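Entry 14. Two folds queued back to back today. First construct below, sequence then structure tokens.
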Amino acid sequence: MRDAVTTWFGAFVLEDRRVIASYPFPADPAALMERLRTRRDGRLASEEARLLADHMAHGLRSRDRRLISAGATPGRLDSPDPDPAPFGIDPAWQRALILQDAEESLRRAWDPSVHIEEAVRALRDLEATRNLLGERLTSWAGRDAPPTEGNLSGSADSVAHRLTTGAAPEGSSALAAPVGSLGRARQGVAELYLRLRQTTTAIEKALEERVPEEAPNVSALLGPLLAARMIEQAGGLDRLAKLPASTVQVLGAERAFFEHLRGRAPPPRHGLLFLHPEIQSAPRTARGKLARALAGKVAIAARLDREGRPLRPDLAAAFKHRTEEVRALGPRRGPGERRGRNSGPPLHRAARDR
């Protein structure tokens, strides 16, 4: 049996480790790049198709899945690859072709929604940092002596504004707050806290402008900020478009889902979708139905946005219609919701609504 060997510069037929037929690719980098794309996409180059047509009757063995799919016999070959030099092809071209192909693959795989993902992660980090600074500011302001109702009350925002403006709370002593470099240091912490809030607001406004452009259908269903969180949780718009509706429904409830897999909790009915106003305001027994309906629409919307399709208002209208149907049914339970409200382990009751 003869061996069919395909390389980056041509296709060859070998018998007893000797080349008996050659089908080299054109000695041109552009043509070689075209053949490389064809082979990478799982298709046969014209030279490979001619090789099969000329020698298939004699029996061919190959380790290339494309040739095997075309009728060659699978097998492990010990035949060496031919030398490209006799065919007028510089061996150094191989490295340049591979680098060019890798660059094109990275360009095709790049998802523009990556900036939305990073913005959502930045919001999460800023929120955590701002909460820590807010706790520190309120604690520090509460240490002003003598402790009075004035310096122990107020939110972190009000404390930060007071410290940055230098205004003293009512009922506090003029000597209560630290002075000198320590006072200026505390004021710097308060200014940083306020700048973090301003940055958070700026990122949220940017998302409200950008998300409807990148994902108009998902944004119309969920709102820009929740749509951004869904895209980030899924790992990008491209991956969100590939997820089934059942997975979209529980995005953000991974912990509760794995607790369910371990047999410690019932399956979660929703994750981030709970933040949607229609689901959050719905009766407890209706949230699962609404989450399923919304997840189905989000899965469709993500696929439309990934393909660059225009806005389809009928998706939001269909979900609104389904919402009205579910709410009209009242508190009746479906087949999967027959358990009592307080049944199951008390520590895991909250997992049902995640």
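Second construct, same run, same settings:
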Amino acid sequence: MAANKIFVAGHRGLVGSALVRRLQAGGHDNLITRTRAELDLLDQKAVHDFMAAERPDYIFMAAARVGGILANNTRRADFIYENIAIATHIVHAAYAAGLRRMLFLGSSCIYPRDCPQPMREDHLLTGPLEQTNEPYAVAKIAGIKLCEAYNDQHGTAFCSAMPTNLYGPNDNFDLESSHVLPALMRKIDAAKKENQREVVIWGTGTPRREFLHVDDLADGCVFLMEQGVEDGIYNIGVGEDVTIRELAEVIADVVGFDGEFVFDTSKPDGTPRKLLDVGRMKKLGWSAKTSLRDGIAGTYDWYRENY
């Protein structure tokens, strides 16, 4: 079931901007967006007033405080407070305004650190979380549980999507706060330009990660909306993973860097492996389309044009 009036919260971010592109390409032209200056999602009254006035038919909840392992580990209070506040304000304001349909965007870091692989939706809350990003994960779990509780008590149709590691246009390439793929792309590109023979990479290079192009995520999210999915958690990924070393090698090939990688084992690896079980989405009839190399090549083109 498609929606007429759609609010994309966080439309300038990696996920939100991809959702806007995908919705517009699919003929959804009645989109509502607000910058942070226009609507502060940390302001409860402002969010309630906005929902009551605009009354969107569907909400994509893509707004979040996000970052890589360094940002997560050093700004722990920001990550838990802001993400819980945003989720609480939007979910309750939507319900209070009589709005029924929403997709909450979470993250694969909600699953236990030593989760069986691949990670299924029912593995949630079956073990301790990865310590380096626990505040962010707890906030995202709270958002999922908010959606479930409002569905149970108030009959809303709020579902949740859990993407794996994302990359693509509008990613964050700041080395202090970015995720691993854009950070490696920036480092490797700089090494090539400066004729350096080495690139230093955090950790051992052995952790395995799954990478999904953000346009594929957006396609999966719009698919859930158009299928009329009304509750539950849905992993969205590719179902395959690579080591950090293998990722660096693909980026180096795309960039044209032929130097060496040096692994700084004094830095943390994070979770040993994060691979999603994407069976629920496949059963509905959806799967990702973009190969890792093609996605990295397109992202590198965007990076060169914008940085």
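Quick look at the second one. The longest helix spans residues 76-96. The two ends are 39 Å apart (CA to CA).
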